[in-house]
Amino acid sequence: MICRSIFFLLVQISIANCQHEPECPHRIFLHDNICRDCYDASSAVQFTQRRWAGVSEGNFNYVLVPRFAPDWSILPSNMFECFSQPVLDIIWKCRPEKNHCSKILENQLCELYHSVNSGHFYKQRMRCECAPQYIFSPEQDSTSEDLITFSTDTDA
Description:
3 helices; single chain; globular
């Protein structure tokens, strides 16, 4: 009887440990892929070396440098994915075993997806296009006339 009680207790503990609340954005994704200060390759290499989720040999880590803090949401069509469409100043592709990162894109408006359960970045679903020249921060008042000055000189 005691063995049976212990067995059921262990089963309950293991079930409780396997159930995680969905996170959007997921802390592992943020820690391993989003770097606000990685504007050079050496910073991206150092960032990659501090990943929580390891990178197996031959695989890459993508380091994303957002212009502003992205807005994240869980899409109604897929409750297991977290989505954002930030402007990324730089996207680095890093090879941890070689301590090397290559800049693959700059100034891109990208669709990003990751798991709400594990934080896994769905790199294959990332879609990017060149960002418009003027992107305003959500904190800025885009109606202010002093944000952008256009030349009215017609003699050129």
